[in-house]
């Protein structure tokens, strides 16, 4: 669907009754080049998105619903900007296949919309080439439904790419017994530790270790408003990127 440059882009928000959804609605309403035409909460029919003439939909729902939502949007020619986690390689592959049969529909799935978090992931991939050890600690509010976070999973994949490019082998770890799982999850060969604690929003620490030194990357989102510049960037750019883009960095000039 092509939008006219002479009028605002028509936007719908799925998951509008949640905290992220409410923040997204407010951000869209404040943007002069965007128009909020539909707020979709739990139980509301998706038909309302098409009936409102939405050109782009922001999905901020839950992992159990996002796949069906996005496939519906693609089927109806509506671009999608997705902040809901829970996507797997299998579900991403199914979405890519669905998009191949569409005419110019774009979908962005972003593990994190905070610009600093996107930069941290890119910096982690660069740093991974130079350090023997790497681990991730992700910290979120206790209402988060999945662990590890999509951001941590995406960061681990970036670190793995950097290590592979440098010809590095497995991260050194002599642990033989860990019956309680104290070493955390292992994602793409990188240990990831998830913290769920009241008072937190979204935080990530990436620790790299080398002989005689430690290098640490940290990003903190203290308020959900920190995600809104990235959400709006995605809404403004998704139509220009047909097919599937995973990661907001795909819309940013990061080299």
Automatic annotation (TrEMBL):
Which residues make up the binding site for NADP(+)? 42
Question: What do the Gene Ontology cellular component annotations say?
Answer: cytosol
Q: Where do the Dihydrodipicolinate reductase C-terminal domain residues begin and end?
A: 116-246
Query: Which reactions is this enzyme annotated as catalysing?
Result: (S)-2,3,4,5-tetrahydrodipicolinate + NAD(+) + H2O = (2S,4S)-4-hydroxy-2,3,4,5-tetrahydrodipicolinate + NADH + H(+); (S)-2,3,4,5-tetrahydrodipicolinate + NADP(+) + H2O = (2S,4S)-4-hydroxy-2,3,4,5-tetrahydrodipicolinate + NADPH + H(+)
What does the record give as the active site?
Answer: 140 (proton donor/acceptor), 144 (proton donor)
- Please name the pathway: Amino-acid biosynthesis; L-lysine biosynthesis via DAP pathway; (S)-tetrahydrodipicolinate from L-aspartate: step 4/4
What are the Dihydrodipicolinate reductase N-terminal domain coordinates in residue numbering? 10-113
Identify the EC number(s): 1.17.1.8
Q: A GO molecular function for this record?
A: NAD binding
Instruction: Kindly list the places in or outside the cell where this protein is found, as annotated in its UniProt entry.
Output: Cytoplasm
By its UniProt entry, which CDD domains does this protein fall under? DHDPR_N
Q: Which residues bind NAD(+)?
A: 15-20, 83-85, 110-113
Gene Ontology biological-process entries: diaminopimelate biosynthetic process; lysine biosynthetic process via diaminopimelate
Binding-site positions, (S)-2,3,4,5-tetrahydrodipicolinate: 141, 150-151
Cited NCBIfam families: dapB (TIGR00036)
Subunit organization: Homotetramer.
Role description: Catalyzes the conversion of 4-hydroxy-tetrahydrodipicolinate (HTPA) to tetrahydrodipicolinate.
Q: What is this protein called?
A: 4-hydroxy-tetrahydrodipicolinate reductase
Q: Which gene encodes it?
A: dapB
């Amino acid at each position: 669907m092509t939008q006219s440059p002479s009028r605002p882009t028509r936007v719908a928000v799925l998951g509008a009754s949640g905290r992220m959804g409410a923040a997204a609605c407010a951000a869209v309403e404040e943007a002069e080049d965007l128009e909020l035409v539909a707020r979709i909460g739990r139980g509301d029919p998706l038909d309302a998105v098409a009936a409102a003439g939405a050109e782009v939909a922001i999905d901020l729902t839950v992992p159990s619903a996002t796949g069906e939502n996005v496939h519906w949007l693609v089927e109806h020619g509506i671009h999608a900007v997705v902040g809901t986690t829970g996507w797997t390689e299998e579900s991403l592959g199914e979405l890519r296949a669905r998009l191949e049969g569409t005419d110019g529909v774009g979908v962005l799935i972003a593990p994190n919309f905070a610009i600093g978090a996107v930069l941290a992931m890119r910096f982690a991939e660069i740093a991974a080439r130079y350090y023997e050890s790497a681990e991730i600690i992700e910290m979120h509010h206790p209402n988060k439904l999945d662990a590890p976070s999509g951001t941590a999973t995406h960061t681990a994949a970036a670190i793995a790419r950097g290590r592979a490019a440098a010809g590095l082998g497995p991260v050194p770890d002599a642990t033989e017994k860990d019956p309680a799982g104290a070493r955390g999850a292992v994602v793409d060969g990188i240990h990831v530790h998830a913290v769920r604690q009241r008072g937190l929003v979204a935080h990530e620490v990436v620790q790299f270790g080398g002989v005689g030194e430690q290098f640490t990357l940290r990003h903190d989102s203290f308020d959900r408003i920190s995600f809104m510049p990235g959400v709006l960037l995605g809404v403004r750019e998704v139509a220009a990127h047909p097919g599937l883009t995973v990661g907001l960095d795909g819309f940013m000039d990061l080299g």
